[in-house]
Fold this protein.
Amino acid sequence: MTPTATYRLQIQPDFPFSAAAEAVPYLAGLGVSHLHLSPVLETVPGSTHGYDVVDPARVREELGGETGLRDLSRTAREHGLGLVLDIVPNHMAAVPRHNRALWEVLREGPLSPYARWFDIDWEAGGGKVLLPVLASRIGDELGAMRVEGDVLHYGEQRFPLRESTAKLPLPELLDAQWYRLGWWRLARTELNYRRFFTISELIGVRVEDPAVFDATHGKIIELVRDGIVDGLRIDHPDGLADPEAYLRRLDEATGGACWTVVEKILTGDERLPAGWPVAGTTGYDALRHIDGLFTDPAGAAELAVQYREFTGLEGDRGGYWEATARRAAYKVVTTELAAETATLTRLADRICAADPALRDHAPWALRAAVRELLVRVPVYRPYRVGGEEALPVEAAAEAKGAFAVAEEASAVDIVRDLALGRLGEGPDHAAFRTRFAQTSSALRAKSVEDTAFYRYAPLISANEVGGDPGRPAVDPEDFHAYCARLARDWPATGTVLSTHDTKRSADVRARIAVLSECPDRWADFLRRITEEAGRLEGGRAPDPHLAWVAWQTAVGFGMPYHERLETALLKAVREAGLHTSWTEPDPAYEQAVRAFVDAGPAGAPLYSVALFDRELDPYVRANVLGAVLVQLTMPGVPDLYQGTERQYLALVDPDNRGPFHHHGPSDEKTAVTRAALRVRRDRPEVFGESGTYTPLTASGPAAGHCVAFCRTDEVVTAVTRLSLRLREAGGWAGTELTLPEGRWTDLLAPEREFGGGPVPVAELFADRPVALLSRTTAREGSAGSE
């Protein structure tokens, strides 16, 4: 059964299945059709997110176990709700004491029946698995190790000992194992297992192996077949060896009756592969289009100019998006992903050495070609074998420009043909193609989402998963074209505004987006607030980029929560990696950040921030309500993140991943959300897979500020965009929206009715900047028409 709307709950020890069951009556009354649960399989104890699975065959006991999950399902069904589960096929936690499969591999080596579960390059590791778990070099850590029975202890960590080695002296014992304990810094260059992005604590799983798929998916499939679960969210399919083959196996295993969406990030005009047996994506592409609709292109461009002037950043120093993203990609591919690049180089070198026509390509040239092509992949990963979309000719030509000698640049052609599957079909060829694609997705995520988004900040509301900070605005025509494609090709895809991974909640982004409509006001505010804070001890930011980001964050957040602001801003500067980082922290710089937050955004100047925010409130209201109504009525299945049916101000995780509280106050946003969800639930034929999408065009001087569409000729959505610009231009002033024939009732104000034909937009939006109209008479020529 395809959901009409889902509601994401972060299930964790502080909010287990029993707590979710208590929230069911409230959520059923809200109007959703399904609960969307974060991962529920057994994890590292205490995990608050669930993506560090250790036993895929068991439902997590800390949450209430399988009994608790089945009880939740029964309670949900009693209230007309189903369940959607988030599942993690790509990786498990690399914590041997909790991960039995990994424990057995470390104990028995490559001959273990579990060895096939993981992508381990035994040859590269000299027959061992590097475990980068030591706080410093091994010679300095020997005193922290001890042996008890057949287990090696290091702090709280435990490792199995190979048979008959427990009584050896410690140095010999360590040398005798199937693993090598190493300094954590070695993960960058010497890691020999596939991991999730750059997180060595999460080891990749080979679900392309049918036996591994069965072992890791048996419990999920059982829950689907037992009717406990109706839908699945697939986490990070880009990390899999063959995403389409995996999805086909999953579809077959679940009997094709499961609504399935994939966390696939689409870049620009990239389309989801048509052959995937899924309902669509989890919705970040919808988020980008909705946010862009409420962003002013001219103002965003002016903010970019102001940002360069304020920060002093120019050209490839970070003043422009493309240059920033490219520099970040080089940084990540040569440091954090150096081990993955080395793996690809070894494979390419082996292929060339075995082929007389390809010999004499030096490893350094192959390594350079791998690096230069990886940073130029314009999407997260290539999918179609032989297709040039992910590695166009222009990218290869540009990559060759990095070589001083043309003959050496021919290595680019070798690597490109290998990556596109055009050069042989041996095991190494297939392995290279797969690893190149997997590394490409990791590079894109780490360099763009987790680095460049924190280095380039003219309008930080645009720096969101799937977003394009270089082109943050989406005009109404492009938005309508996107929705028409969804209605035609992916009518049951997911749509989102806030998730557990968004860097700022939708309400925070909505406030920041208003700055694109008033760049001059922002410049004046930034000048005044910088002077005000600068008069206070510690009130000067350690660098102008941080100041810009911090004050935009304060404007968007609007709440004096010192700890939450400090945590988010410290994460921002560490992710940017310009002055400090997670692995090479600069204590003095970070203390300066704390002092600035304390004296500035979380200190006395917050009063001035509140005054500035108050000026923006009417326009923020239009953005918030408009985005919500568009998401809930456009093509696709909307997913609401916990608590976002009312004002929800949250920053990047962990700020946005706390336990759910459903007793918060209702507000205008809640009323709009409830009305839209209920009409979706009550009229599934209007919004379902057979429904249609028709843009409605306003006429008059302010036509560009009204975005409207009709669903299946029965429900009309109309919203205001760029409301501050609208007010400055004189308001609606004779602008009209032509409604389809018939009589229409505004579900947000049932006492208000409209006839078909031209309606003054000022009248339509007399009470609020949005309208949700439902037909109250049948269309002419249909049964029962007047």
Q: What stands out?
A: The two ends are 35 Å apart (CA to CA).
